[in-house]
Structure formats: structure tokens, C-alpha cells
Write a structure and sequence with these properties.
By secondary structure, the protein is an all-beta fold. It is built from no helices and eight strands. The chain has a domain of about 80 residues: Immunoglobulin-like (Sandwich). It is about 0% helix and about 40% strand.
């Protein structure tokens, strides 16, 4: 009878998944992304985050969202706690040619809205077709 030897062979992993260097748990904000001819618009729900608790970065084709949500009832005895208190974190690889100098964002009522304008060369353009002779 042949025996099959097993080894601790390395496992294949998804290289697009990033491993955190800090042992902190993060909430993943719910996100909608809308595309128009001129821009991508991202809507991220981050309840409990103040506008000064948002860190938004775009570098080398990656958009990084980070938001800190402070606990609403620090020091009080809670009977039920469902509201998040902690950090939100999400990273997006933007596959469009974005004009990074024109990125704008606003934060209101727990929703972060990020406008990612497309670079001129990434916008669709109509090409006229001439009637042949």
C-alpha cells in the first residue's frame, strides 16, 4: 500500500489582499461608486465619524479611506451597544486615469463623498465618420 506524504507546502494567496501591520480591527464602510462621463463618485457610509476624523489619500492609483469613530457614550453603562466605535478602513485600486490634482471630497451626516475627475485622455470622445467617396 502506498502512503502519501503530506508536507506544509506554502499556500497560494490572493496578492491583492493587504495584510495589516497593526492588530487593530476595522469596520468596512459600505460604499457606492457611480461613474459618469467626467468622473467617478464614491459614497462611503461612516456613521459616528466627525469630519476631522477622516483621512483620505490618493497615491499611485490607490484611494485609501480611513475614519475614526469615537464612542458616543464613553464612561456610561450601556444596556445595548450597536453603534460602531472604532476605525473604518478601505482601500480601492482606481483603474481609470484620474486627475489627482482635481480630486475633491466632502463629508456630511456620516457620508463621505469623493469626486474623482477623469483625466482628459480617459474621457470618451465622439469620433465623426466621414462618408467615403
Amino acid at each position: 500500500m502506498n502512503e502519501v506524504a503530506t508536507t506544509n507546502a506554502p499556500q497560494r494567496t490572493d496578492v491583492t489582499h493587504r495584510e495589516p501591520t497593526r492588530g487593530q480591527l476595522y469596520y468596512t464602510p459600505a460604499v457606492d461608486i457611480v461613474e459618469t462621463e467626467h468622473e467617478l463618485t464614491l459614497y462611503a457610509d461612516m456613521p459616528g465619524v466627525a469630519a476631522d476624523g477622516v483621512d483620505l489619500r490618493y497615491e499611485k492609483g490607490e484611494l485609501v479611506l480611513h475614519g475614526k469613530a469615537a464612542g458616543r457614550h464613553a464612561g456610561k453603562a450601556l444596556l445595548l451597544a450597536e453603534a460602531p466605535a472604532g476605525d473604518y478602513y478601505r482601500v480601492f485600486t482606481i483603474n481609470e486615469s484620474i486627475d489627482a490634482a482635481r480630486i475633491e471630497a466632502e463629508f456630511k451626516d456620516g457620508v463621505l463623498v469623493v469626486h474623482l475627475p477623469k483625466a482628459e485622455e480617459a474621457r470618451p470622445r465622439q469620433i465623426s465618420v466621414k462618408l467615403g467617396a
